[in-house]
Amino acid sequence: MTLSGSRPLIEMRDVRKSFGTYEVLKGISLSVNDGSVVCIIGPSGSGKSTVLRCINGLIPINSGTIRVGDFAVETLKSDKALIPLRHQVSMVFQQYNLFPHRTVMQNLTMAPIQVLGEDPRKVRDRAAALLAKVRLTGKENAYPGELSGGQQQRVAIARALAMEPRVILFDEVTAALDPEMVSEVLGVVRDLARDGMTCVLVTHEMRFAEEVADEVFFTDRGVIVEHGPPATLFKSPSDPRLKDFLDKVL
Amino acid sequence: MNSEFRTFALGIIGVPLCLIGLLAMIYGDRTGATLAFIADRTPMLLTGSPDFSSLQGGFIANIGMSLAAMAIAGALGIILGIGLIAEFWPTRLLSGFVMNVLRNSPWLVVLYAMLYLLPFEMKIFGVWITISPVVKSIAGLSLPVAANIAEIFRGGIEAIPTGQWESARSLGYRRLQILRYIVLPQALPLMIPNLMTIYAMLFIGTSLVVVTGASDVLFVGRTIIETAGSSTASAIYIYILFLFFLFAFPIAILTRWLERRIGTVSP
């Protein structure tokens, strides 16, 4: 089973999800190869963020299958059963969602210590290295409320990395930032992509998607309308809905 | 604590002056003798004994009962509060039912219920244990307070943004861990002013336990009036009013100060 070879790291097959009577995902299938960067683009309300939340089991699905590594996500029902998956899949949110009552350092170390039961000293060393990586050395003892939005989001990325995941999900991580802070956060994501971290990004930054993505998925009204390498998808879109969308945002 | 300090100074000086004025209006030229009478009975009213030899009753008993009831209500309230936000809906429904019944019952009615529902003595692990009026009073007071604490608890928890739950879950935390490590540390400071207010209400409510026969300050006061004559009634009741004020007023001021501090200082 563990012999994956060329098997994708993430595979979603015909995933459906409804909130009440409203069907958000109407049969989503996509796959993400180990070490690749995948961007999901599309109009608001098309189900992009829901796709991410299904991958790490934050939202249970109605039908279909989701496989991440060796985990069949749809079969993991309790939070306890989901812990090993969450060790492998980290997530960064639009609103950062740092823990405001804890320092930057504690934000990075608390989950590896409290959830994964790792040695606190080792975790702290790792966290210090990660803070250097997101260029926030010296902010260890600051509280999230004392940092700018861009700095907070970089802490959130470091917090996701502290779990030593195989894949990171980015949910519109620059959407809540002031324009001058977008590039510092995208720079960190770009570094991660170069280092070979598997990344799934929901984003409105088309230029960035074009630059870093290995594959781009365009979603509209709960289905994947078109997907392919960014060069083809952005330069010669075939679906009229995608053409229309790109005309509006580019 | 500028504005609170001014209010406190005004109250702590002004209210006693008003009460003395009231005494003077009622007792006229006997005011001095009445004050001496009150001073003489103060140990009795405070401790239930004429010379501080025991702390079995009087105002001390009110404080003791309020603290015991608050501790029990706190524990019960947290359990009930966790029930109110449970994922499993039958738990939520049952907790909501219990909470609403208790919260909407008049305290006096609950006290009477305890008086007649709890037996005079009970067999626990083969030992007969007497259930004193004090125990019944504490039980009766803690039930409605527990319901109020449960509501404060639920409100405090729901004031924390859902993004905190979501990011904690994505880091592998489980529900009770999220409550303990992430949500409660943020919610508790928001709850403290409300908890102090409910404690002040509980403390004032201890004056109701006189119906159970517990020898609280009102019970002692009544005994004094019966022996010393009804002309002393006004003085004794005004004095008891003063004692309650002396204890509850600083709590109210502290609550207001905390409210302002928590409101303006971000974590």
From TrEMBL, chain A:
What the entry lists under InterPro entries is as follows:
AAA+_ATPase, ABC_ATPase_HisP-typ, ABC_transporter-like_ATP-bd, ABC_transporter-like_CS, MetN_ABC_transporter-like, P-loop_NTPase
Q: What is its main location?
A: membrane
Q: Which residues form the ABC transporter domain?
A: 10-246
GO CC, alphabetical? plasma membrane
Tell me yes or no: is Disulfide bond among this UniProt entry's keywords: no
* Residue intervals passing through the bilayer: none
Q: Which domain of life is it from?
A: Bacteria
Q: Does the keyword Ribonucleoprotein apply?
A: no
One example of the protein's molecular function in GO is:
ABC-type amino acid transporter activity
Keyword terms of this UniProt record: Amino-acid transport, ATP-binding, Cell membrane, Membrane, Nucleotide-binding, Transport
As for subcellular location, the record says:
Cell membrane
A Pfam cross-reference name: ABC_tran
The membrane topology of this protein is: Peripheral membrane protein
**Family as reported in the entry's similarity comment:** Belongs to the ABC transporter superfamily.
Q: What is this protein called?
A: Amino acid ABC transporter ATP-binding protein (PAAT family)
Q: Which organism is it from?
A: Neorhizobium alkalisoli
| Taxonomic classification | Bacteria, Pseudomonadati, Pseudomonadota, Alphaproteobacteria, Hyphomicrobiales
UniProtKB/TrEMBL annotation, chain B:
Tell me where the transmembrane regions lie.
7-27, 59-86, 107-131, 202-224, 236-258
> What's the chief localization of this chain?
membrane
Give one GO term, molecular function aspect. Answer: transmembrane transporter activity
Q: Which PROSITE patterns match?
A: ABC_TM1
Where the record annotates domain ABC transmembrane type-1, the positions are 59-255
| GO cellular component term of the entry, any | ATP-binding cassette (ABC) transporter complex
Keyword Metal-binding attributed: no
Q: Which UniProt keyword terms apply here?
A: Amino-acid transport, Cell membrane, Membrane, Transmembrane, Transmembrane helix, Transport
Q: Topology versus the membrane, per the UniProt entry?
A: Multi-pass membrane protein
- Subcellular localization: Cell inner membrane; Cell membrane
- Gene Ontology BP annotations: amino acid transport
Q: Which InterPro entries match?
A: AA_ABC_transptr_permease_3TM, ArtM/GltK/GlnP/TcyL/YhdX-like, MetI-like, MetI-like_sf
Question: Per the similarity annotation, which family is this?
Answer: Belongs to the binding-protein-dependent transport system permease family. HisMQ subfamily.
Q: Name it.
A: Polar amino acid transport system permease protein
Q: Which organism is it from?
A: Neorhizobium alkalisoli
Organism lineage: Bacteria, Pseudomonadati, Pseudomonadota, Alphaproteobacteria, Hyphomicrobiales
